[in-house]
Amino acid sequence: MRKFYWVLLAVFLALAGAEIKLPKPRISSGEGIFTLLERRASGPRAGFPAGAVSDSELATILWAATGRNRNSSGWTVPVGMGRPPHVKVYAVKNDGAFLYDWQNHVLLEVNTKNVKAEITADDFVRNSPVILVFVADTAANKRAELDNILAGAMSQNVYLAADALGVTTRYLMTLNAGGIRRELKLNTTDMPLCIMPLAK
Known about the structure:
Elements: H1 2-15, E1 19-21, H2 33-39, H3 55-66, E2 68-70, E3 74-75, E4 87-93, E5 96-101, E6 106-111, H4 116-119, H5 123-126, E7 130-137, H6 144-165, E8 168-169, H7 177-183, E9 190-199
């Protein structure tokens, strides 16, 4: 299964568009984990901000969601049996849609257009500068409950990292699965799970 995953990734990379190298993630916020947990909250639907998120902030949040944090099989989220994460994270921005490649800490372009309107009908989400889209790779994992558990761990890491950086976010399951499949060019075995807008 592991070999199959790397073959698929190599094929995807060969077909993908631009590759954007991300800044190194920030690993120190000056605040302890319990302070961040005490403040952890979803941004409001009414009055959700629309200010820009910097490349450095996005890089840190993506790394927190599913980045490598130790050796060749250690991630910021728990994945069983040392397997690669089976939930992918896409960043949808005004200048296109990108897959986060945790192995190389880069964004891989999958669409050059602004496709936010195809992701969700919620105006406050479409107006945010970045929408994270979590997608289960069901070919890499056959147990759907594990995909949801992993997405939950990833989204909690996003909340904590975002709060440390002064970025507002919100976990949402209201999404347009068909639009996501089409605009992010997903495989037939990929399953959209949830979205999280990011803004300041």
